[in-house]
Recover the amino acids of this structure.
């Protein structure tokens, strides 16, 4: 870790803290958005007004992105969040 200097009074630690705050803030906003969307979909489902899901697009997305992300995780040496 770099120490403090006249240009960077807190060294590089401040950048790490700011990037961690930005990352957590993004995750919190994303989580809140997904929770709101889930409640809206549940509400529409209970009223019988929910849009139909296009099975073809769903299959393509699951088939393309699922195995790709899984193989990326295996390439890194982990197994779905481990290591």
């Amino acid at each position: 870790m770099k120490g403090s200097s006249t240009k960077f009074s807190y060294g590089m630690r401040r950048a790490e803290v700011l990037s961690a705050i930005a990352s957590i803030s993004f995750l919190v906003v994303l989580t809140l958005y997904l929770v709101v969307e889930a409640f809206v979909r549940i509400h529409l489902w209970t009223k019988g007004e929910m849009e139909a899901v296009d099975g073809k697009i769903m299959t393509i997305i699951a088939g393309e992105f699922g195995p790709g992300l899984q193989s990326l995780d295996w390439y890194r040496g982990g197994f779905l969040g481990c290591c």
Q: What stands out?
A: The helical segments are 13-47, 55-75. The chain has a mean pLDDT of 77. The chain has two helices and no strands. The chain has two domains: 1-51, 52-83.
